[in-house]
UniProtKB/TrEMBL annotation, chain A:
Phosphoprotein recorded as keyword: no
GO BP of this protein: transmembrane transport
Keywords, in A-Z order: Cell membrane, Membrane, Transmembrane, Transmembrane helix, Transport
Major place of residence: membrane
Keyword Acetylation (UniProt): no
ABC transmembrane type-1 domain segment(s): 79-269
GO CC list: plasma membrane
Membrane topology designation: Multi-pass membrane protein
Protein family according to the UniProt entry: Belongs to the binding-protein-dependent transport system permease family.
Annotated protein name in UniProt: Carbohydrate ABC transporter permease
Places the protein is found: Cell membrane
Residue ranges of the TM segments: 15-39, 83-104, 111-132, 144-164, 203-223, 248-268
Automatic annotation (TrEMBL), chain B:
Protein name: Sugar ABC transporter permease
PROSITE patterns (UniProt xref): ABC_TM1, PROKAR_LIPOPROTEIN
GO BP terms: transmembrane transport
UniProt entry keywords in alphabetical sequence: Cell membrane, Membrane, Transmembrane, Transmembrane helix, Transport
PANTHER family in alphabetical order: ABC TRANSPORTER PERMEASE PROTEIN (PTHR30193), INNER MEMBRANE ABC TRANSPORTER PERMEASE PROTEIN YCJO (PTHR30193:SF37)
Entry's Gene Ontology cellular component terms: plasma membrane
Regions crossing the membrane: 7-30, 67-92, 104-127, 154-180, 201-223, 264-284
CDD domains registered for this protein in UniProt: TM_PBP2
Record localization: Cell membrane
Protein species of origin: Bradyrhizobium niftali
Source species, domain of life: Bacteria
InterPro entries (UniProt xref): ABC_transporter_permease (IPR051393), MetI-like (IPR000515), MetI-like_sf (IPR035906)
Length: 284, 295
């Protein structure tokens, strides 16, 4: 591009850019508006909730909704339950994926292709397909309403094993492992001290995905955890909103308290949501 | 230490994971397939083998047919809305790349995707609310009479489609952005030198190169829409105790048969139908992929 752009072309470009910005601003606003209203409704008095047009910044902000939600429901307890559930599930998924992905990617054992084939084949099966037998097992083991019972559905992730294996095969050189072996390092030490630190990137992405998956789980916690005290956040909110005496203000307060921190966290981590896709070779 | 055989570590490391995998994944899947051939109502000790009788009954079960019809409509509508909108948005955002604004656009479009399902559904429930919702007030301004969005069988489907698309768009945009960044600049450069407009460049360069990504996102969106449950549970469940119209989706029908009617074998047969649908969609994706790479 040696020839300088003529002024009219530059002006045209700028105008197009402005139009694009305007469209994108409008779309962004529309996407956010339901959430903005949800949060603002949480602080509105009953008369203002009925007002038209709906206000975005409440005229007389009130904390009544939030106070009353916190008095009526163990909301913090539910948040705590969800946090514990998601953390344990993430820990399990990350560690099982790391070890299985590494072994399947770097060791020539007979049967590895078969095992990996089974993992890939079951990866496409949605959780809803096998949750009923899983539930019956949990029930007969007497684990309903317990942490182990809840976790059973979220201990492993086929995609995680796949992701780690892919990474190990392409990004961790055999020579590195061989060199460590020649130096007399044990296999366990090699995995913990050499391989694991190298996998921080994909494991971080996997952790965000696993945490998100458990945090937003619904059907499974709904059937396994049936005490008000053991609900996860999603289930607690869903059942709270079917109550008889609940108004929009308090519903919004509960929902807003529940979603603001997690939504901000996950949207900051949004790169992790596509890293897996990039790793699965779709980017070409 | 020196004498430990080479296979010891991988076998010891892999066995617990595989054992776990078998217990919580492989076994329940097989069990679903097996149960679908039996008639069993949890409580009874009798569990007679009925062959494909459950599937034959499903074929004329009006509730199940309604569920599969609704779910299919929702899934394909969500894809039909999500893919073009997300592609357009991703292209626009990509054209503003490098500006700080583009990160803000990207984040705001993505945010609905990471809002947990229940609070998001609650936000939309208010918007659609017949008495208090802004949607009715809005259409009232242009003279359209108020609708009972969540109680009408067709309109409540529309509401679910809107909610699910709103959530699906962010993810699709994010993946399209990755795809668009991988289109070599040289191609656009060449097109510009040949006098192509940016619209033409988009149509003849970006779209064909993005096809595999579009296919992938379409299938992911379809499969996840076939599994929707929480959204239907919240959006169309009883409104403040009043008997709401329930949008019957596949998973809801399945859970109802299993946990309310105690027909486990029958519910397992529904799960198998869901599995078959997912397998067909996945197979179609692989098929189309292969055709493309051969062409």
């Amino acid at each position: 591009m040696s020839e300088p752009d003529r002024p009219s072309v530059v002006g045209q470009h700028r105008a197009v850019g402005l139009v694009i910005d305007a469209v994108l601003c409008a779309v962004s606003l529309m996407m956010l508006l339901p959430l903005v209203f949800l949060i603002s409704n949480a602080f509105k008095t009953p008369p203002e909730l009925l007002a038209w047009p709906p206000t975005i910044i409440p005229h007389q902000p009130t904390l009544d909704n939030i106070v009353s939600v916190l008095r009526e429901t163990p909301l913090f307890r539910w948040i705590g339950n969800s946090l514990i559930f998601a953390t344990l599930s993430t820990a399990s998924i990350v560690s099982t994926s790391a070890i299985a992905g590494y072994v399947l990617g770097k060791f020539d054992l007979p049967g590895v292709p078969v095992i990996f084939g089974i993992i890939i084949a079951t990866a496409v099966v949605p959780f809803e397909v096998y949750m009923i037998p899983l539930y019956l097992n949990v029930q007969s083991a007497g684990l309903l309403n317990t942490w182990p019972g809840l976790l059973v559905g979220y201990l492993i992730m086929s995609f995680g094993i796949f992701l780690v294996r892919q990474y190990v095969m392409t990004s961790i050189p055999d020579e590195l492992l061989e060199a460590a072996r020649v130096d007399g390092a044990g296999e366990g030490w090699i995995f913990l001290r050499i391989v694991l630190p190298l996998m921080r990137g994909p494991l971080g992405a996997l952790a965000v995905l696993a945490f998100f998956q458990a945090w937003t789980a619904f059907a499974w916690p709904l059937v396994v955890m049936t005490n008000k005290e053991t609900y996860t956040l999603e289930v607690g909110l869903a059942l709270f909103q079917t109550g008889f005496t609940v108004d929009i203000g308090r519903l919004s307060a509960a929902a807003a308290l529940a979603l603001v921190p997690s939504a901000l966290f996950f949207s900051l981590m949004r790169r992790n949501f596509v890293r897996g896709v990039a790793a699965s070779g779709l980017k070409e | 230490m020196r004498t430990t055989p080479k296979w010891l570590f991988p076998v010891l490391a892999l066995l617990p994971v595989l054992g776990l995998y078998g217990c919580v994944r492989v076994y329940p899947i097989i069990e679903t397939l097996r149960l679908s051939l039996f008639q069993w109502n949890i409580i009874s000790r009798r569990k007679p083998f009925v062959g494909f009788a459950n599937f034959i009954e499903l074929a004329s079960d009006s509730l199940f047919l309604e569920a599969i019809f609704n779910t299919t409509i929702i899934a394909f509508s969500v894809v039909a809305i999500t893919i073009p909108v997300a592609l357009a948005l991703a292209t626009l955002i990509n054209s503003r790349q490098g500006l700080r604004r583009s990160g803000i656009y990207e984040a705001s479009v993505f945010l609905p995707h990471v809002v947990s399902l229940v609070p998001a559904a609650m936000a939309w429930k208010w918007i659609f609310d017949a008495r208090l919702g802004p949607l009715n007030a809005l259409i009232g301004l242009v003279g359209i009479p108020a609708q009972s969005w969540l109680f009408d069988p067709i309109l409540s489907l529309v509401c679910l489609i809107v909610l699910c698309s709103w959530q699906a768009i962010g993810y699709a945009v994010l993946i399209f952005l990755v795809g668009l960044k991988n289109v070599p600049d040289a191609l656009y450069e060449a097109a510009r030198l040949d006098g192509a407009s940016s619209l033409q460049a988009f149509r003849y360069i970006a779209v064909p190169l993005l096809k595999p990504v579009m296919l992938y996102v379409s299938v992911i969106t379809l499969i996840s829409s076939y599994n929707i449950y929480a959204q239907a549970f919240v959006l169309a469940s009883d409104v403040q105790g009043a008997p709401g119209h329930l949008v019957r989706v596949l998973v809801l029908d399945m859970l109802e048969n299993s946990f309310r009617n105690y027909r486990v074998g029958y519910a397992a047969a529904e799960a198998v139908v869901l599995l078959v649908i997912v397998l067909i969609l996945t197979g179609a994706q692989f098929r189309l992929f292969r055709d493309r790479s051969r062409a």
